């Protein structure tokens, strides 16, 4: 089988080329942000922001402005609202996040269902990457570039914040500003990912790459590189799978990322599940051999009696 025609055939279609570029941009941005989310324990925050943007998207369609504006405003608003409720109550963070994002998500569903419009709820929830226009492509690329530029510029400060918030505060870093900056970038990355996979599946793009890379290394710089490489490869594989298998593009991309995570979880050395089980079997076999071994000559020889 000649591989070149198989690779080039989908790229003959302009809509599929745009889909590939948008998905790659969303995958790379989400992969970079996911590393910090995993280390800081903010995975649920990514879930909250991705769902909370639904009313913003719906209102943006109704008013006739770019949906990215509405999505970003409501994403940032959700973060601010979560922070306000956390600081004025004794509720735990996960409880506050759950209350806020479900309320906003329900509000978005109510707006979509009650307003006469051309909004396709399925496209909002699950993405419509094959329908991306040139203007939307440039919008995603610009937002992605801005997000990556800010992250790379503040990488050292954000990394210190993730590993030791107290030390970051002691040496003079504004930890509140850095946290707000990271959450703002999270909102931007959600906007970028919406075009590719929609509100629901963007959660996976914000969590799975970082989780996969975390299983492979304890070096943060290596973690960033691995997350980007693995998720970019999964994005390309997902696009091609959606074309040849005729399945949802967003679902194919997320499933590709999930398959990579599963492979790493099972087979990565030395901590993959298969290798852990193999080491356990080797230790059990070693203990059985040690138990069944005959006593040594020194211990087996009886002490001479007194004659």
As residue ranges, the low-confidence spans are none
User: What is Rg?
Assistant: 25 Å
Helical residues, percent = over 70%
Number of strands: 0
- Mean of all residue-level pLDDT scores: 85
Q: How large is the count of helical segments?
A: 15
The major beta sheet can be summarized as:
none
Broad shape: globular
The succession of helices and strands, N to C, reads HHHHHHHHHHHHHHH
Structural class based on helices, strands and sheet pairing: mainly alpha
Strand content: under 5%
Protein traits:
single chain; 307 residues; mainly alpha
How would you sum up this structure, described in words?
The chain has helices spanning 3-8, 14-40, 43-52, 54-63, 67-88, 93-114, 121-126, 134-153, 155-163, 165-170, 175-216, 220-245, 249-267, 273-292, 297-300. It is mostly helical and 307 residues long. Helix 2 packs parallel to helix 8. The mean pLDDT is 85.
Question: What is the secondary structure topology, with strand pairs?
Answer:
Blueprint: H1 3-8, H2 14-40, H3 43-52, H4 54-63, H5 67-88, H6 93-114, H7 121-126, H8 134-153, H9 155-163, H10 165-170, H11 175-216, H12 220-245, H13 249-267, H14 273-292, H15 297-300
Helix pairs in contact: 2-8, 2-11, 2-12, 3-5, 3-6, 3-11, 4-5, 4-6, 5-6, 5-11, 8-11, 11-12, 11-13, 12-13
Short description:
The chain has 307 residues and is mainly alpha-helical.
